Amino acid sequence: MSGALWAPALWVGVLGIGGFGAMARFMVDRTVSRRMKGPFPFGTLVVNISGAALLGFLAGLTVSHEVAILAGTAFLGAYTTFSTWMLQTQ
Questions:
Q1: I want to staple 63 with a disulfide (CB 3.0 to 4.6 A). Which of 22, 37, 57, 67 is the partner?
Q2: What percent of the chain is predicted at pLDDT more than 70?
Q3: Is pLDDT of 86 > 60?
């Protein structure tokens, strides 16, 4: 696919896959937080450690530029960044 045609499809992919990453973060954070009661945000800790490990694994793979953007930037970026940090510190 040519670069001019691929760019819009890539951005749509980033938006969609980023949404899945944000939902995965919510689900993991909620599941861990329900099991680990207390004031410490264990859900956020688990999400950030697992996201860093997955990004390291992805970096070691030989994948195309587009796959790296979709998996690393879109999914894992949303998975590790959409934090409830402000809510947790209130």
A1: 67
A2: 83
A3: no
Are 28 and 50 a contacting pair, CB within 8 Å? yes
Going 29 to 34 to 38 to 39, the CA torsion angle's sign is positive
Reduced 3-state DSSP string for the chain: CCHHHHHHHHHHHHHHHHHHHHHHHHHHHHHHHHHCCCCCCHHHHHHHHHHHHHHHHHHHCCCCHHHHHHHHHHHHHHHHHCCCHHHHHC
**How far apart are the C-alpha atoms of 6 and 67, rounded to whole Å?**
12
Residues in the chain: 90
- Please give the structure tokens belonging to residue 28: 């993991």
Q: pLDDT (tens digit, 9 = 90+) per residue, 20-46?
A: 998 999 899 999 999 998 888 898 899
| Predicted structure pTM score | 0.77
